[in-house]
Predict the 3D structure of the following.
Amino acid sequence: YLNANGQIAARTIGSEVGFAKSLFTAQTFRALTPTSRIVFAGSARLGLATGFVREAVDSLGNVTSIRDLPQSERFYAGGDSTIRGFALDMVGTRHVRAQASDTLDQDLLPKGGNGLVILNAELRAPVWGGLGMVGFFDSGNVFAGVGDVNFGELRSAVGGGIRYKSPIGPIRFDLGFKVNRQPGEGLTAWFISFGQAF
């Protein structure tokens, strides 16, 4: 499965802010062998965005140029459908001495970013009746700008989960463990939700 999604907003066509944003997704689902009931599922997502320059006037009348995306349009990662060892939207970069490229503040709260990389891999196995089990590895990060995307700064999680095929659709429980935790981070995150992670 391949998907490309793009959007553009500009003040010249009625938007309050201007930006360009795109998200590319590739997914695959394969049985390990022709007779196997164990399925490998993989997903890769790449998000790129940039804001168009606009001028802002502060209370003193000073004019500055701003290129930031609105917070609602920034990328975020962490949670049951991205990187399952982290709470919702809590993945990002943070340095001991704060840098402009950080996407987490000093309290580990997310600021979002213009670049996103997410890689997921799962082994899905039926157990009995409508019950199944999953082992997963998730990796990715949010970056302040497209030029800041660095595969050496990906955050990762490993874990497992239980799936139940209910009459209203799959119900899942996942427990993820952070790899290489940063100071102030907990070890795990867990999720109960509907549908597959991807």
